[in-house]
Amino acid sequence: MKLSNFNYQLPNDKIAKVPADPRDTSKLLILNKYSGKIIDDHFYNLAEYLQPGDLLVRNNTKVIPARIFGTKETGGKVEILLTKKIAHSGATETWECITKPGLKPNQKIFFDSALPSGEKTHLVAQCLSTKSKLYTRIIEFNQMGPQFIETLEKIGITPLPPYIADTVNDSDAIRKKYQTIYAKYDGSAAAPTAGLHFTKELEQKLLAKGIQIAEVTLHVGLGTFLPVKNENILEHHMHSEWFEITQETADLINKTKAEGGKIICVGTTSARVLESVSLCKSDKCTIQAKNGETEIFMYPGYEYKIVDGLITNFHLPKSTLLMLVSAFVTAPNTDQNFITFLETSAGKAYKHAIKNNYRFYSFGDGMLII
Known about the structure:
The chain is α+β, with helices and mostly antiparallel strands. The chain folds into 2 domains: 3-63 and 176-369, QueA-like (3-Layer(aba) Sandwich); 67-157, QueA-like (Thrombin, subunit H), CATH 2.40.10.240. It is 21% helix and 28% strand. The longest helix has 12 residues, at 247-258.
């Protein structure tokens, strides 16, 4: 299973720099994973390809301004990217972070200089330990909860992908666009981008047709966006990400499956949650309510147990997200054996999308695989 088998060539002019406006006017490619049939449409017509009794499952995580800049006691500048909250206790929160430059244990970082108005945040961070050679550090902050988020809103920057950040003029406006309309729980360093296409009007169309909507939470971090560097993908280590699926959502998923409805995941993060909490006995698989960490890595050969359909954007070459999609359209989930990504039905859909001027990556168009 080689990394080079998940490559494709994308012209730079196909990378979306701004989102569609309104959100649901983005294109939607519908792919039948069994036959390979492709249909071109728009996202506002999503309901036409689903049936009453189907269930959409989406990730309600909220992107935080996770990139912050501080100063060491020596006066040196430090950039910190918060990637995963580890713990909170008393008046502090502990996060796994990426720092530039790397920090030594017990070093402190101060953030009051980040506010040009002269207002004091009183935020102080201390490096507790190093975690790897990738500048990953465990850092404790002297604030927690709403106070910490309020401080981040004042001094932080939403960590946009570089192909978007390089074109940003209005950071406040782009921050709102890089957030789903149903985002609820603070904690992500990146958006679950398949959900960016949804509008209130589209939600009403779906509900009016009898299509249900449920939510899970997975705070997007290194497990989702860290690049794969090993040619043998089995050597890639997926960093854990925190998730939660409530009893109400688990019951609704199990009821839908029992009644013959399809489970359609909005985004790869939602799919990772459901597959992480699946329980199978004989030929019957169900979902259990749970919260915790997942390191699930889905690549060709993985058998999907819960997910029947997937709404997703067009992903970067050689990414774990592309591997997840490749698994969904190949054996044992279909009768097509995996050779390379471009030879799969999804790979052929990508080639079709490039030829027909679809927009790729975070602010790009969407694809429904059923």
